[in-house]
Write a structure and sequence with these properties.
alpha+beta; Thrombin, subunit H; 6-stranded antiparallel β-barrel; 6-stranded antiparallel beta barrel; 4 helices
Length: 277
């Protein structure tokens, strides 16, 4: 009992505070005077304001998971939209290529480029067609715009293509208007441009003249578009000619392999001559 009394005596200030607060609350509840009413209304406004702030903060905290869920959903929708746009573009490209295929007399096999080497002067393209699709070495690769390159290696299901934008690639061409003939060669720089070489200054050239493959090629069919002359100037013996290529290699995705039989005898004879020379 003495210990309880000592404890109460030790905390007597807190006990008196609680006692006086209880008396104050009782008086506050039973009184109905104007000052008390004003105090009640002021206290109500303060408490309501605090509760509103707490409710807003609590709502903000409760919306955080919802915002994260919506952000994730938006990312998924954005990804699906990009996939649909890509599918629409591919559908357009394939439809255009198939329309071109129907108007051609030669046998064309539609192929997709599944790999391309970048940042090199010896660009190579890999197609999803191979020997099982009747693809052979030295078959030309084209689009509805013009010449892409030629097949240089074939496996059962894949083919490796050497495109125009490869410094080892060359093809003979002729000018549509002037009939001047030369060789297209890429210099390893701009993928949209190439050089037309071996045009003597005695030939006549015109700006904007279109270039097509000749019948001299060992792999390509004749009269396939290659590019357009954009500028030229005379050097000592030959013209220096700049050409805009017909095919846009920066967006190239689908191509045709022309299933034309090669001329091995002609190719062998030319190779023999090159060795003899």
């Amino acid at each position: 009992m003495q210990k309880l009394f000592d404890l109460f005596y030790q905390f007597r200030e807190y006990g008196l505070l609680i006692f006086y607060c209880l008396i104050s609350l009782w008086l506050y509840a039973v009184q109905n005077s104007e000052p008390i009413k004003l105090m009640r209304s002021t206290a109500l406004e303060i408490i309501s304001g605090l509760e509103t702030g707490v409710a807003v903060f609590d709502e903000y905290l409760s919306l955080k998971p919802e915002n994260q869920r919506l952000r994730k959903h938006n990312l998924q929708l954005s990804s699906e939209t990009n996939l649909l746009r890509n599918a629409a573009f591919q559908h357009y490209e394939v439809s255009k290529m198939l329309d071109f295929q129907q108007n051609q007399r030669s046998r064309l096999k539609l192929a997709k480029i599944i790999h391309r080497s970048f940042g090199t002067e010896r660009t190579l393209l890999t197609l999803n067609l191979g020997a099982s699709d009747s693809v052979k070495v030295d078959m030309p690769v084209i689009t509805d715009k013009g010449l892409v390159g030629r097949v240089i290696l074939v496996s059962e299901n894949y083919a490796l293509v050497q495109p125009i934008i490869n410094t080892d690639f060359k093809v003979s061409v002729y000018c549509e208007k002037t009939r001047a003939m030369g060789v297209i060669h890429w210099n390893g720089q701009d993928e949209s441009r190439a050089k037309l070489e071996h045009i003597p200054i005695s030939s006549r050239l015109e700006w904007g003249d279109r270039l097509y493959t000749t019948e001299f090629s060992t792999f390509s069919s004749p009269h396939i578009p290659v590019g357009t002359i954009t500028s030229f100037k005379k050097n000592e013996f030959f013209y220096e000619v700049n050409v805009n290529l017909a095919v846009d290699f920066s967006t190239l995705l689908y191509v045709f392999v022309e299933l034309k039989p090669g001329n091995p005898e002609k190719a062998a004879m030319i190779r023999s001559y090159e060795k003899f020379r």
